[in-house]
Amino acid sequence: MDGNFQKSRREMVKIIREDYGFKDERVLEVLLKVPRHEFVPKKSRNIAHDDTPVDIGYGQTMSQPYTVAEMTNLLIAKSEKLKAERVLEVGTGSGYQAAILSHFFDEVYTVEVIPQLSHLARNNLSRLGYKNVFTKLGSGEWGWKKHAPFDAIIVTAGVDKVPQELFEQLKVRGILVAPVGKGYDKTMTRYTKIKKLRKEEMKKEEFGTFHFVPFVKEKR
Ligand code: SAH
């Protein structure tokens, strides 16, 4: 059984490398290791490694494998050492992206707004032995102040604009990657916090259009 999943995982990596022209071997190596089928509902295991988002219930989907690869690359491409200290993820889903990040960061903090998904992710990650991933139930709008500042922040739901609090919880030279824009189409955007004289600013770079489930705003 697991042999079949390994075969489909190799196929998934081949598509990302050859069809999309994705070149970061460090990311491809980790995509080969993490058992994506363990993060999807049992009934969808046969499509776990397909080049498509997968329904994880509660109106949410797990991002397409290529999107996970691309966002991970944008987040780590500029890190000086491979293991940067801490990353914050907004939108845990069932925990797949968090598992990928745990190979690149010493500590992964991840926040999810839907209780059942947060619970599911916690179970998935502990069953598979990911010890450096810490989950929390709540809205990612407020980041996770207790563990800030972060070396990197990744937002995995589409936002109209990045919540200000997230920029504040980023270190100087830290990187934030998020799908940003109005409507269904989002522009993959990377922000780098820079300090000029005494003033902090966010440098912005854009990397094409992606589709994402929308960010849920908490009612206050
Ligand atoms: N990172 C996940 C992607 C899941 S899809 C993966 O690896 O597959 C995006 C997730 O963001 C959904 O689970 C959704 O419930 C969650 N989400 C949406 N708005 C949020 C918010 N305000 N705070 C935290 N999580 C949010």
Summarize this structure as a short list of keywords or feature phrases.
Rossmann fold; alpha/beta; 220 residues; two-stranded antiparallel ribbon; single chain; binds S-adenosyl-L-homocysteine; 7-stranded mixed β-sheet
Characterize the structure shown:
The chain has about 220 residues and is of the alpha/beta class. It contains 6 helices and 9 strands. The radius of gyration is 16 Å and the shape is globular. About 30% of the residues lie in helices and about 30% in strands. The strands form 2 sheets. The protein has a 7-stranded mixed β-sheet. Strands 1-2 form a two-stranded antiparallel ribbon. The chain starts with a helix and ends in a 9-residue tail after the last strand. The model has no long low-confidence stretch (mean pLDDT about 95). The longest helix is centred in the N-terminal third of the chain and has 17 residues, at about 1-20. It has one domain (about 1-210): Rossmann fold, CATH 3.40.50. The structure holds S-adenosyl-L-homocysteine. S-adenosyl-L-homocysteine binds near residues 140 and 213. It catalyses: [protein]-L-isoaspartate + S-adenosyl-L-methionine = [protein]-L-isoaspartate alpha-methyl ester + S-adenosyl-L-homocysteine. Catalyzes the methyl esterification of L-isoaspartyl residues in peptides and proteins that result from spontaneous decomposition of normal L-aspartyl and L-asparaginyl residues. It plays a role in the repair and/or degradation of damaged proteins.
